[in-house]
Amino acid sequence: MSKHRVTLAVLFSVVGVFSLQIFAQESTYSPEVQGPSTEGELALEGFVYPSELEVKLWAAEPMLANPVAFGIDETGGLYICETFRQQKGVEDNRSHMNWLADDLSLTSVDERLEMFRKFLGADVEKYALEHDRIRLLRDTDGDGKADTATTFADGFNSIVDGTGAGVLAIDGDVYYTCIPKLYRMRDENGDGVADEIETLHDGYGVRVAFRGHDMHGLTLGPDGRLYFSIGDRGYNVVTMEGKRLLRPDTGAVFRCELDGSDLEVFAYGLRNPQELAFDDFGNLFTGDNNSDSGDQARWVYVTQGSDTGWRMYYQYLPDRGPWNRERIWYPYQSDDATSELQPAYVVPPIANISDGPSGLVHYPGVGLSPKYDGHFFLADFRGSAGQSGVRHFRMEPKGATFELVDDDWLIKSILVTDVDFGFDGRVYLSDWVDGWNGPGKGRIYTLTDPQYRLPSLETPSEELMTEGLAKLSETRLGELLAHPDKRIRQRAQFELVKKEAEDVLREVANSSSNQKARLHAIWGLGQMLRVGKILSKDLIELANDQDPEVRAQALNVLGDNNVTDAAPLFVAAVGNGTPRQKYFAAIGLGNLQSDENLFVIVDLLKQNDNSDPVLRHAAIRALAMCATDEQLVEFSKPQFPPSVRLGAVVALRRMESGSLKEFLNDPEPMVVVEAARAIHDLDIVDAVSELAELGLTPDSPDALIRRVMSANFKRGRKKNAERVAEIAADSRFSDSIREEAMQELLQWDEPPVFDRVTNKHRPLDTRSLDLSTPAVRGNLGGMMAGNSKLKTFAIQLAAKYEVQDVASYLQETFEETGNDPEMRREALIALDAVNSMSLMKLLDSGLTDEHDQIRAASREILARRNPVDAVPVLAEALNNGSRIERQSAIHVLDQLNVPEAEEVLLKSLDELIANNVPADIKLDLIEVAEKRESIKFKNRLNAIEKQRDPNDPLSAYRECLEGGDLTRGIEIFFGNATASCRRCHKVKGDGSDVGPDLSAVSKENSREYLLESIVLPNAKIAKGFETVVYALADGRIVSGIVKGETDETVRLMQPMGEIVVIEKDDIDAQTKGQSGMPADMAKQLTKSEIRDLIEYLSTLKTPYDPKGHE
Fold first, then answer.
1. In b/e form, how buried is each residue of 372-395, taking b as 16+ CB within 10 angstroms?
2. Residue 1079, Cβ neighbours under 10 Å: how many?
3. Cis bond leading into 698, ω under 30°?
């Protein structure tokens, strides 16, 4: 038995303790891992990659399973993060929507634990049954395949633990990120098992959010610090120095020293920055996941102090609120709408690329062809192998930021979670194999270019790392700063810093002919400056070097170390440097936190004039760090251009200052909108009343109007209701704004716990309708003017506020049979609410109306007023009405507490058992029986269950085939957070290309096919998305995507596009890829939701023609 980790009681009961040293103990954990097979070798045939490359299997199950990420140590060992807790402790709040209000309110890990206990009770202990762990694999004989495997560490199974999703091995230390902690481990005796562990930080992952939005991205920065990331599960961490870092609603990038000290937030506003990578010039990048709402993933230049705009509560708005409305995820000024709408507080992405950005690495400079120099390699994980792989691209400077160029695939048709370069010249890829939850399988493949794998270097990287750089002389280390391999350059830099080799670093920084060597020397000097080992004189001199990048990096290091004597250099660079130099100089001025050069920063905002978002950000950050509220308010004066006033507003936002109200009357709309965003979204109490009173016109920006209305809604007084009601009644405002105003008035007395603009958890007290009644009654006439949808809302208001004097209008609306049926229905309901004298007469006509929703509403009102008399009317509808009437009758009867209603329902259940009821009410009747405690209902429910065919995999869901609601089905497909259909699918051009386009899914497919696709997604994978590997009788292996099939043959498109026809009799063995659709999708939706979704999908019969929609 191997030695593993400490007992759980000791390891996971400690909260907020740093550098806790723990020694490993015996572990008996044995997860379910698939046994050995030939699948890994067979899968090679399905991969698509350039012909000059070779791909080989390095390791497979049972040596590893469910690999999330991996790291490579100096001797070629692979530390693999394995997960076995998906949906067994690592949850997704889409599977627990009843948790949502609680989840969005959480601010600490302890609160999350209490929420689990609240909802799960004793079952919460089941979350500790499975572990995540680290496996260590090695190739000890050098044959290109792993031959030893140990469990380096396990026991990551606390109730609050997340997925172990990041690992970094350096100089014997192994860092590991697993919510809620950052760990450091060591194997002191070399047996491949961690002997001790330290908890460096605790408090990451305060919310449940989405699975996969974990703590990850471990990498070393050029400054010698540890960088890592977290998804939008948020954080509440107390640093070793006692400072609290708190943002419970977004993702972030952190950095700290290697011992965990000096932890800081480097950037925030990210959704799920799974991996981080630095380029050769110290620039940090990440791929950030999209929100499954038609938006696209982001390629982000991670600048210090940046906010890239995502907040996790946007996820649960059907349209994602400001995220989509204000085009936060779009690249800067990518079109006119983005230029107009995108907030200035956001540092936008460089590009939209990938559908599932996962593993990420920058080319180290050796191992592949020179054509890959400067390229990033990004794993694109899409849930199924056929559409996944690794893409590569590079950055081209564009001002102080970049643009993405040369995008292409390195390898496709493999479900890669992570990618990295070994010191042996190989590219290593971790293969998840199938699906989303972890199939108990996992592979590591290597990709090599035989021509370039072992370059003709004096000292290859592998040899240097195996022997160790610590033994080398300072002179030799100085030479290695010019090595072609970035990793060798960086390790040489770190060794020189350890040896305090100031002279060598200074000599290389000043005199080397190799630019990259000079940069590493500068970064090394910066490390020494940070710990007080040298003075800043040499770096100050380098800030005047002839090489622009050397000057930029000298400014970077001086600013990072808060060197006051460098202020004149910063000022000069801001004035006349390159855009990159201006950026680092502005960051440096901000770090000095002095107002002495305030107008230099202001001049940068003026010169930039919003043209470069990274320069704007650097200047704004500097303003926020250097200026007081009063100084920033001075910039609201008209002599300052809009770019300066806008910058001052965002700086005040960063300070969460009430002085933002001074900018609400700015003549420039973009300045006013930015101030309103900050006041509203950050809930700046000192300025909310001014925002609520702000004057509006119908031409005011949508983002401004919504926030002004919301500010009035939050304040909730009579004058605030009057303000909202006036907008609702003003036909000059857009229909969407008027609709929002009416919805606020409908919720005035019982406000939702979520903010109506952002969806942030922001509970308000209930309040009396007396506060809003005068406003509604005084403006109801204006609200009635508009389209049928607006009139319907107005009618609902009349009902809610019992506006008697509109009864005649309501009656006229109902009696005019040419009006929209839904509006007439609402008018009838409103007449009931105001106790109209004419109601019973109108019900008589409503019961025979030509529209079924009006007939159904009439019966419902009748049942409420006279239950016994309504029963035979409802029974008649149940037997002879339309689908809407039948379903309505069942639910109304279920609500009537009279014996006659129960008898009708029981009789209908008997008819169901006898298979004598329409298919579209079967689910409704079953759901009624499931709710009832009566033995009569339970007996009939048991009889129904006994009739299900045990050999029919769809038997438990066949009642979902008919009877769905089309409108609700559309809402589920496009807006339901649980289903997230458009995360993978498109309909009529809206959605994602990860899975099949469903625009014509029902042209040739039945409802039963649709049901099977939801309940058993792997039973029939759509043509063009099913990958297979066949072993043929003649010994050949062929693979590809199934394009067609008969009883005798299979048409297969091979990786290079060739179509071949395979005789089924010639197939000896085969393996099939799994669908990318979650296998448990049916468990994530109610049966009613499945039925509604099928109803919508069944209407999709026409292929999408984009030319017709230009």
1. bebbbbbbbbbbbbbbbbbbbbbb
2. 17
3. no
Cα separation, 128 vs 85, in Å, equals 9
Pairing of strands 264-270, 306-307: parallel
> 676, 702 in Cβ contact below 8 A?
no
Q: What is the token pair recorded at 710?
A: 């919301």
- In angstroms and rounded to an integer, the radius of gyration of the C-alpha atoms of the chain is 32
Beta carbons of 60 and 54 less than 8 angstroms apart: no
The full set of domain ranges for the chain reads 8-448, 457-534, 696-837, 966-1109
Token digits of residue 396: 């081209």
State in words which class domain 966-1109 has: mainly beta
Phi, psi at residue 237, to the nearest 5°?
-120, 135
Q: What gap in Å lies between CA 940 and CA 954, rounded to an integer? A: 21
Query: Phi and psi of 672, rounded to 5°?
Result: -65, -45
With left for phi above 0 and alpha for psi between -120 and 50, is residue 803 left, alpha or beta? beta
CA distance 247 to 237: 9
| Residue 964 to residue 485: CA distance in whole angstroms | 60
**DSSP-assigned states of every residue in 532-601:** TSS-SHHHHHHTT-SSHHHHHHHHHHHHHTT-GGGHHHHHHHHHHS-HHHHHHHHHHHHHHT-GGGHHHH
Q: Which residues of 623-636 are buried (b: 16+ CB within 10 A; e: fewer)?
A: bbbbbeeeebbebb
194: left (phi over 0), alpha (psi -120 to 50) or beta: beta
Counting as low any pLDDT under 50, the low residues of the chain are 1-24, 1108-1110
Segments of 107-214 assigned E as strands: 132-138, 148-156, 164-170, 173-178, 181-186, 196-202
Beta strands 306-307 and 284-288 are: unpaired
DSSP secondary structure of 449-505: -TTTSS---SS-HHHHHHH-GGGS-HHHHHHHTT-SSHHHHHHHHHHHHHTT-HHHH
Residue whose structure tokens are 């008697």: 804
* CA–CA separation, 434 and 616 (whole Å): 44
Take residue 19 and report the two structure tokens written for it: 């550098």
CA 551 vs CA 238, 492, 503, 542, 582: distances in Å = 36, 22, 20, 6, 11
Percent helix, percent strand, percent coil in the chain, to nearest 5: 40, 20, 40
Predicted pLDDT of residue 528: 97
> Each residue of 978-1003: pLDDT tens digit?
666 766 787 876 766 666 788 888 88
Beta-bridge partners for 1067? 1032
Task: Look up residue 28 and give its amino acid.
Answer: T
Map residue 427 onto helix, strand or coil: strand
What does each C-alpha distance from 683 to 624, 648, 658, 702, 761 come to in angstroms?
19, 18, 10, 19, 11
Tell me which amino acid residue 275 is: E
Contact 850, 885 (CB under 8 A): no
Region of 223 on the Ramachandran plot (φ > 0 left; ψ -120 to 50 alpha; else beta): alpha
Looking at domain 8-448, its CATH architecture is 6 Propeller (2.120)
CA torsion, points 736, 737, 742, 747, in degrees to nearest 10?
Answer: 100
* Integer CA distances (angstroms), 1096 to 853, 954, 1060, 1080, in order: 19, 19, 36, 20
Contact residues for 960 (Cβ-Cβ < 8 A; gap 6+): 923, 1011, 1087, 1090, 1091, 1094
Q: Return the pLDDT at 5.
A: 32
pLDDT at residue 1046, rounded to an integer: 82
CA distances to 610, 888, 940 from 903, in Å: 72, 17, 13
- Determine the distance from the C-alpha atom of residue 313 to the mean position of all C-alpha atoms in its chain, rounded to a whole number: 11
Are 82 and 66 in contact by the 8 Å Cβ rule? The answer is yes
Cα distances from 814 to residues 10, 293, 821, 823, 841, in angstroms, run 70, 38, 9, 8, 12
d(CA 476, CA 998): 61
